[in-house]
Amino acid sequence: MVCTAIFCIIAEQLLKFNTLKSIVSFCCATLLLVSCSNSQNKTLVSEKAATFAKTITAAELKDMLYTYASDDFEGRKTGEPGQKKAIEFIKSHYVANEIASPIAEDDYYQEIPESYFRNSIKASENVVAYIKGSEKPEEVLVISAHLDHIGIASNGEINNGADDDGSGTVAILEIAEAFKAAQKAGHGPKRSILFLHVTGEEIGLYGSRYYTDVDPIFPLENTITNLNIDMIGRVDPKHEGGKNYLYLIGSDKLSQELHDLSEAVNKKYFNLEFDYTYNADDDPNRFYFRSDHYNFAKNNIPVIFYFNGSHADYHKPSDTPDKINYEFLETRAQLIFHMAWELVNRDERVKLD
């Protein structure tokens, strides 16, 4: 409204005074209109999202994780029986919530042959589900987490991997359920969303690399962003006793607009502490290269890697569901849902720098 008023005032001046000064004023007004339009496009669009974000609850996350990170799944080692139970668990959630597969009806598995693992690991599967966009279905947001873990220790103890990456897995399932609820209520996403559960992360990012390098279900040039979730259920030593937080990695590496949007969403809805320690180019941990987002980033797709940092139970049998902070996990998953909502419902996809 303000922009329109400015335009009308300048137009009236043009009609009264046919001068160079008026023409210059008109040009300035036009530029201002464009600027205002761009500014409006960058405002948050997620007011409707709050209702559906609240369907992501600590109770449901806890219920799923106690199953997914139980001994029955035998540590979910790639290609092993426990990993096969894991993919069935994930698939059954999508089927129960009427969230379709992008491959074919009832076919949620992207098969990865044994040869791709250099015959050192049995054949395995990514699990995929999606919600089709209503206005720009060809543009796709990918939300990813790895479904595998490291299996059974040499002493027979099971590495349950509750945080790594059971927390990311159940977070995606809840996020997908929230988007489906929104769609059923008439607020489906404008762009499509692919929920991608990748295998083989622990042995070298195999599942995500297979998706990006061999068989991208949706063209990479149409993939607007990857939000990758790997360990978001715990608190690391640095943040013990403090407020809820997340490490964000990669948000500004390829798109400053993505980073700014992420900051705006957090400030408006949650005000978590965002820690960018591991985002530094000289980070000795090199986490930017160590999770599944990297296979998207190397293809010039903007990414955000959500991470709670390492802890004493990392890659140990003691990474169990009783140690998860479910209130923190709930808020973190809701934050990622809000961010995803923004990305799929804005007028334009975030710009690649």
Automatic annotation (TrEMBL):
CDD domains: M28_like_PA. Residues 126-338 form the Peptidase M28 domain. One of its GO terms (biological process) is proteolysis. Signal peptide: none annotated. InterPro entries: EF_Hand_1_Ca_BS, M28_fam, Peptidase_M28. Pfam families: Peptidase_M28 (PF04389). One of its GO terms (molecular function) is metalloexopeptidase activity. SUPFAM superfamilies: Zn-dependent exopeptidases. It comes from the Bacteria. This is Peptidase M28. It comes from Algibacter mikhailovii.
